[in-house]
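Q: What would this chain look like folded?
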Amino acid sequence: MIMKEFENCPNRTRRFAAFGTYAVERLKNARVFAVLLGAFILCALASCGCVAVQDQIRNMFMALLCAVLVLPVGLGPEYLLHMRMPTAVTVMLLVLAAGGILLGPCFDFYFLIPSWDDFLHTLSGFLFSCFGCAVMCAVVQPKDGKRFAFCVVMGMMACLAVLLLWEMVEYAGTAFLAVDMQEDCLIHDFHSFFLAGTHSHVVEVDNITKTVIYYGNGQVLELDGYLDLGLIDTLNDLLVGVIGAVVFGVSMAFDRLSKGRLHRWLLPTFRTSADAQEPTQDA
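A: My prediction, written as structure tokens:
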């Protein structure tokens, strides 16, 4: 067993060396890409220092992981899948990572800007549609408008699948890891079959101004409304993600009809294995 692992070691070493060479050449040939990655790493390290001073250990490790993993995570899929991401897609990915991992939890953007979470989920819907459409274009090789429209629609459907899986991850984190990934919110009215005791009619509870929670130790917590435990957040995230996907579909339709070049800015491309080791320069 030890000899077998030893024999496989050089191959793995060569793979890592090949990836390192690819990363260096990619950064040399794509200056915009290199500047964006460098700016992101600096922001992550600065965020790590800020939250470390405030004793936010969890956020400090998250920011540090962002700084360390952004290069392999950003270039790994390109190298393994023989893919090339346009600069616009790279910008959206970095904005999504910075907004969701750094600015959101580390600097409380989720509370400072009420629509921050909506913005990120809308952007993710648009971005996942770009990747889904690119994969379908690589498989179908569309030569006409109908096939391209099929690729766009399938890309949007792939985006919806990713959005749904992410909401399941958020639910799992809330249910099993005691992490509040589904954002709570205060509401002031709701309708309930449970309070009616039957499904033949519904009880309406409105004008809720206060909810009082009594703990077993005698502590009392008062809320200026009724606390919704993530249901509204989950469905709202799916809705704004769908809006992002629809915006992508409409953009591609107008681009196709006007014979524009927007698709070159938004759709990652897949290269042949012969060209995979030769990073090209940014347009």
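Strands lie at 83-84, 185-187, 190-192, 203-205, 211-214, 220-223, 226-228, 269-270.
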